[in-house]
Structures are given as C-alpha cells and as structure tokens.
Specification:
This protein has 199 residues and is an all-alpha fold. It is built from 7 helices and no strands. Helix 4 crosses helix 5 and helix 5 runs antiparallel to helix 6.
C-alpha cells in the first residue's frame, strides 16, 4: 500500500524559511489527495471493469495513505513535519517522549532532582498531549490493521496481533524494566523503582 513514485524530501530541512519546508512536506499530501479525488470521480463514472477497479485502488490507497497515515500529524510522516514547522516545535515527538520520561521518573520513582530543560513558551501543552495521543493512534491503527488482516487470514491476523502487542506493550515495558535494573540514576532507590514499575 505504498503510493508510487516516492520522493525523499528530507533535504528540505536545509530551507531556513519554515513556509518552504511546510510547502515541501505538504506537497506529498496534496498530490495524494488530488490523485485520490480524480480517481474517485473516475470510479463513479466508469462502467465495471479493470479501469474502475484501478480507480478504486487509487482512491483507497491515496485516501487511506493521506488521511490515516501520511497526512496525520500523530505519525512521523509529512503531516507531522507540517505540524512541527507550522507550530515551530522542532522534534516534537522526541521532546514529548522525553518530557513524559522525566515526568514519570519524578512522580512515580520520586527522582525529584530531574528537570526537563529548555521549555519554549507555550510548548508544555504540546509536550503533554503529543506522546500519549500518538501512542493511542498508532496502537488503534495497528489493531485495526490486525483485525482486517485476521478477517482475510486468521493465522496471519493473529501473528500481526502478537507483533502489535510486542511493539505497543511488551517492548516498552521490557525497556523500562531494563532501565530500572541498570540505571545509575536509581542508586539507593532501586527497590522502590522495581516495585513502582512492577505495579
């Protein structure tokens, strides 16, 4: 389901003007939307056959890709970079994840000496909202994909569901437990941290 042709536009980061960076990131979304719109008109007008099926495929792939994946700012594709440049919040995903780590360490593990430095004016609501919303959206999208695949092939759907469970829940929990076991930040507070993470 990858639309072709694909263009690597990462060099647009070299533009000093944010409007140019936004235009480059938004171009992929716009092209997919235009192609999906033209294909929708053709799909509605054409008689049943290969051309109508091809038009439907373009509508499905272009529309799904644009609105659910590429244009959605909760996934790190074009829509995300448009949001980051428009709101002037570079590295929003990474900073939001780091903010939540500091927040959890301070409140859950009682490491009150930790601080999250370099907050820009008005940035905190973005940092609070982005990481959990992004995680929820990715999880829901992957779960929906697993259910759709399971309807077509139950064994493959179960395998994909297990992969989703690993990626969404088990891997982050394993990383947290590994950090608790090895981190130098927890010297003297490791038993409490193990208890907090286990609960």
């Amino acid at each position: 389901l990858t639309p072709l042709p694909y263009v690597d536009a990462s060099a647009s980061i070299g533009f000093s003007d944010k409007h140019r960076r936004i235009a480059v990131a938004a171009a992929g979304i716009a092209v997919e939307a235009v192609l999906a719109s033209v294909a929708l008109v053709l799909w509605l007008l054409l008689e049943p056959g290969m051309a109508k099926d091809l038009a439907f495929a373009v509508v499905f792939v272009g529309g799904l890709s644009t609105f659910a994946v590429n244009g959605n700012p909760l996934l790190r594709f074009d829509g995300y970079y448009v949001l980051c440049d428009a709101a002037e919040l570079p590295n929003l995903a990474q900073r939001s994840a780091q903010y939540w780590k500091v927040l959890l360490k301070r409140h859950l593990l009682k490491l009150h000496h930790l601080r999250f430095g370099g907050l820009a004016r008005g940035e905190m609501p973005w940092l609070i909202a982005y990481a959990p919303l992004s995680w929820l959206y990715r999880s829901a999208l992957l779960l929906l994909l697993a259910v759709m695949v399971a309807d077509w092939n139950p064994a493959l759907g179960l395998a994909l569901l297990a992969l989703v469970a690993w990626w969404v829940v088990l891997k982050p929990v394993g990383a947290a437990l590994g950090w608790v076991a090895r981190s130098g930040e927890l010297r003297g507070a490791r038993p409490r941290a193990v208890l907090a993470v286990s609960l």
